[in-house]
Structure formats: structure tokens, C-alpha cells
Amino acid sequence: MILGIKDLTLRFGGLTAVNHVSFTIEQGSIKSLIGPNGAGKTSLFNCITGFYRAQEGEALFRGDSVMRLKPHRITEMGMARTFQNLRLFKNLTVMENVMSGMHCRTSAGLAGAVLRPPAQRAEEKRIRDVAEECMDFVGILDAKNRIAKNLSYGDQRRVELARALATKPQLLLLDEPGAGLNYDEKVQLIELIRRIRDEKGITVFLIEHDMGLVMEVSEKIFVLDYGTKIAEGTAREVQNNPKVIEAYLGKEEEAAV
Ligand SMILES: Nc1ncnc2c1ncn2[C@@H]1O[C@H](COP(=O)(O)OP(=O)(O)OP(=O)(O)O)[C@@H](O)[C@H]1O
Ligand SMILES: [Mg+2]
Fold first, then answer.
1. Domain limits, the chain
2. Which of 197, 206, 218, 251 could be joined to 36 by an S-S link, Cβ 3.0–4.6 Å?
3. Higher pLDDT, 256 or 160
């Protein structure tokens, strides 16, 4: 078990975004989190990665609590994430964006990475090598000197993925990595997620709305609705679960009214 979540609860005033949620993620697995809009998926990610502070419960990463830690500390421990809405430095190059994720792995820190005093040159070469390896892995090495905002949306998503990989995570959390991608890009994403697990040995936990992608890539799925876990299992089990069908169809009916 790489991640263990127990009774996690997050409230915003009167709204309970995450309601006593418990689950585990096995090392080396690919697990998906699904649920209708507003179900609490991103909020749950934010609690696990230190962006929000849950009021109740426990989150153990490789046996250690991450409940009171800041995001950068959690990244150092080996958990990386991408965001539902891209968070790139739009006016920096692809290389600089990928390197920006790595200051947690350098002794010089971010200032050293940017100011480049001579003593840190070897360190910088090492950082560049890792960044290049990650850009190559996701297929954007050719674009390394381009300004991030000039890349296609799909390629910008790859930059974010490369930045997360450059922190050398053991667990990677992806918040809707397929959003805004066309069919071909989604096929490539599925392949990439598999390679992240198979070649790099990284455990993957993803939020995704595209059911085709979810069913294709994940071994286990768990479902949130109104902050509460309503189902967990294999793709087939979850697909046939009446609670899941109702959660999705109910939302469609509401939307249609
Ligand atoms: N910072 C915040 N302050 C107040 N309410 C919030 C905050 N973040 C999220 N919420 C609320 O918590 C609930 C869950 O939101 P969340 O973004 O986690 O859902 P989601 O499952 O990721 O949805 P989507 O599929 O649309 O991304 C929603 O009702 C949302 O409005
Ligand atoms: Mg979300």
C-alpha cells in the first residue's frame, strides 16, 4: 500500500466536499477516481497533496502522515500531481517549466537553479539531464526551447506531466489529464500513463471524466458522489453498480430540466 486514506472529511462552511472517505492505493497500480461534477474529486486530491487541510481523518503516504504538511514537502516525499486547470509559467520555456518542478530535488534550491552560481553548475547539469529525460519520455523534447504558451493545449498538458515526473515521484496524481484532448491525443495519453507505471514503476491515481479512458487504463476505480464514496471495484463492477448509474443519470436528468 502506497497511500492509505481513512475517514477523510473536508468542509467548506456548511458544505461537506469530502465526507468520511476511506480507500487505499496499492503500490504499482493504476487507480481512477470518478464522479459527477462537484463530487469532491479535486478537493480530495487537494487534501492529499497539502493544498487543502482536511478537518478530519488521516492520509498516510508510505506509512507517514501527510495531513499537516505543505505541498512542497509532500512533493519531496515522492508524491507529484498535475492540475485540472493547467498551471504552467506561460512565458517561460518548456525546459524552464520542467526544471521549475525540480527544486525540491536539488541541494541549491530554487534560487540556485535560477541564479546559477558557479558552484552549482554540476548540479544544474544534472537537473537539465533529468528534465530532458522527462521531456523525451512524454514526447516534447523537440519543443524544449519554445515558450510554453505557444504550444498546443495537448502539448502544454505534456509539459505539466514532464514537470511532475521530473520530481521523481513514486505516486503521481493526475487531475483530468484527458480534458481538452482530441481522440488521438487521448490514445497517446493512455499509452503514456501505462508507460509511466510499467517503465518508471510509478503508481498512478487519476481523476477522469472520459469513461473510455478510465475503463481502458485503470485496474481499480472508485466513485465519489456528493463527497461520499458510493462504489469501488473493477471497471466492470463499477459500471454495473446501480448507485453509480443513478449518480450519473440523476445528474443528467437534473441538467436536462
Ligand atoms: N475552495 C473552495 N471553497 C469553497 N467551496 C469549494 C472550494 N473548492 C471546492 N469547493 C466546493 O466543493 C465541492 C466539490 O468540488 P470539487 O472541485 O472538489 O469537485 P470535482 O469533483 O473536482 O468536480 P469537477 O468534476 O467539476 O472538477 C463543490 O461543491 C465545490 O463548489
Ligand atoms: Mg475537479
1. 1-78+169-257, 86-168
2. 251
3. 160
Q: Hey, whose CA ends up nearest to atom 5 of ligand 1?
A: 12
Distance 163 CA to ligand 1 centre (A): 25
| Beta carbon of 19 within 6 Å of any ligand 1 atom | no
CATH architecture of 86-168: 3-Layer(aba) Sandwich (3.40)
| E strand intervals along 97-162 | none
For the CA of 44, the closest atom of ligand 1 is 18
Per-residue pLDDT tens digits for 152-195: 999 999 999 999 999 999 999 999 999 999 999 999 999 999 99
Instruction: Judge if 1-78+169-257 and 86-168 fold alike in CATH terms.
Output: yes
For the segment 228-249, what is each residue's pLDDT rounded down to a tens digit? 999 999 988 998 899 998 988 7
State the closest ligand 1 atom to the C-alpha of 41, by its place in the atom list counted from 1. Answer: 21
Q: How far apart are CA 114 and CA 96, in angstroms?
A: 9
Domain 1-78+169-257 class, CATH top level: alpha beta
